[in-house]
Amino acid sequence: MMILHDFLPSGNGYKIRLLCAFLGLKVTLKEYDITKGETHSDAFLAMNPNGKIPVLELDDGQCLSESNAVLLYLAEAHQSPLLPSDLIQKAKVHQWLFWEQYSHEPNIASPRFWLTHNAMTDLKAQMLPDRIQQGNAALQLMDDTLSTQDFLTGNTLTLADICLFPYTHVAEEGGAYDLLNYPHVQRWINTIKALNWYLPITHATL
Ligand SMILES: N[C@@H](CCC(=O)N[C@@H](CS)C(=O)NCC(=O)O)C(=O)O
C-alpha cells in the first residue's frame, strides 16, 4: 500500500488525502510533527531533500513530493475526470494549481501556520499585513470566479477545487481572514463538504 508522509493540520497534505477519498484509494498515513523538525532527519531527507511533507511513497519505494505534482500524478494514474483530457480544459486546471502555489498558499497558509502554531517572529510580523492584503485579493478572485459558476474551472468539480479547498476552508484559523466577506467561496465550501466522499482535514483514516 502507498504511504503518505504527512502532518494532519497541513492543507498541502490534505489535498492528497482529499483526492484519495474521491478516488477511493487506501493509503497508509505516517505522521510527522513539523513543529519539532521531524521532516529534517536523514531518513526523511532521503525521501524529500526539501525536508517537507507531504511525500507520497509509492508501492515500489519511489517518493513524490510537492502536493500539486502528487495530485497530478494520482489523477493521471487513475485517469480521473478531475483532470480533463482536453488540452485547454487541462491547462485551466494547471492555471489554478500554479496560481495556488504563488498567490494563495503563501498568503493564506503561511499566516495560518504562524498564528496557530506560535511561530511568529519579528520578520514574519513585518510581512503579515502585506500577506493578508494579498490573501484577501486571492480570496476575492476566487469569489468573483465562483459568482458565475459552481466550481473553479466551470460547473464540474476538478483537481483545481481539490487543490484550493484545503487552505481556503480553514483560512479563518488564526484570525487573519473572514470568510463572511466571500459568500460565493462559502457556498463552494459547503457544496464540497456535502459531497458523499468528503473527508475532514483532521480525519486520520484513509
Ligand atoms: N510546495 C510544497 C510545500 C510543502 C510545505 O510547505 N510543507 C510544510 C507543511 S504544509 C512542511 O513540511 N514544513 C516543514 C518544514 O519546512 O520544516 C507542497 O505543495 O507540497
Automatic annotation (TrEMBL):
Q: Tell me which residues make up the GST C-terminal domain.
A: 86-206
Q: Which residues form the GST N-terminal domain?
A: 1-82
This protein is called what? Answer: Glutathione S-transferase family protein
Checking CDD domains in the record gives: GST_N_4
Which domain of life does this protein belong to? Bacteria
**PROSITE patterns from the entry?**
GST_CTER, GST_NTER
Protein family (similarity comment): Belongs to the GST superfamily.
